[in-house]
Amino acid sequence: MFLQPVASIIESNPFILQSSPPVHLPSANIINAICYLSNTLGQPPVAPPVKVCIPDVFDRTNPHQLHHFLFQCRLYFCSGPTLFKSDVDKVNFAITYVSGVIQDWLQVALEQEDRGIHHAWLYSWPSFVKEMHTCFDIPDVVAEAAHSLDHLHMNPDDQIATYNVAFLWYSAELQWTENALCHRYYSGLPDRIQDIISTHEGGKPSTFQTLYSTAVSIDNHF
């Protein structure tokens, strides 16, 4: 089916010319033209696709990247919901962006499928995510997060945003008290921020959110 030129559609439809004010359509942008016509004729506009980067290939050389890989997949699904209507579509997309030992694992599973040995996680996105965490995530996430948090420090010349992202990432896996979080967060800050916080009017903040906001405000002045 051939699309009639936009100009000829407008010229041949006096209703469009009579009911709408003059609009200069960009001749080089067919998407905008279609959106204009759809709105004029009372039809839903055609939204241009959202551009999102494809996921990085996950090979488990760094197990910490599993969460990031799955997050990237979800972002891509959101950018094209009509392309990923079923869980099978999502799983098939994700398995094209793995390599190394994970690709070998998938090859075995697919060969078993050919022999009638079925795996539910190949047909369900939640099951696929759970299987990936079971097989390729860090064995003891809580212990790993606690260890990483204990050794996390902000370099004097760094911006605090890098430190904050890492701190929030690790602490999300733990059920530490407010006092424990405050102590650990303060301990990881450089002297240039600790010194100002320690002489803060009213004393050192007693809640993590207040301590966090105070440290960010101090760092912004540098």
Q: Can you walk me through this structure?
A:
The chain is mostly helical. It has three domains: 6-40, no CATH class; 65-136; 141-220, no CATH class. Helices cover 57% and strands 0% of the residues. It contains twelve helices and no strands. It has helices spanning 6-12, 14-19, 30-40, 65-79, 87-94, 101-114, 125-136, 141-150, 160-171, 178-187, 191-198, 208-220. The longest helix is centred in the N-terminal third of the chain and has 15 residues, at 65-79. It is elongated, with a radius of gyration of 27 Å.
Features:
mainly alpha, 3 domains, 222 residues
Tally of structural domains: 3
Structural class: mainly alpha
- Give the biggest sheet: none
- Classify the helix fraction into a percent range: 55-70%
Strand content: under 5%
Task: Say what oligomer this is.
Answer: single chain
Which segments are poorly predicted (pLDDT under 50) over 5 or more consecutive residues? 1-48
Alpha-carbon distance between the two ends: 62 Å
> What integer is the average pLDDT?
80
* Number of DSSP E strands: 0
Shape: elongated
Task: Give the SSE string.
Answer: HHHHHHHHHHHH
The total of helices stands at 12
What Rg is obtained from the alpha carbons, in whole angstroms? 27 Å
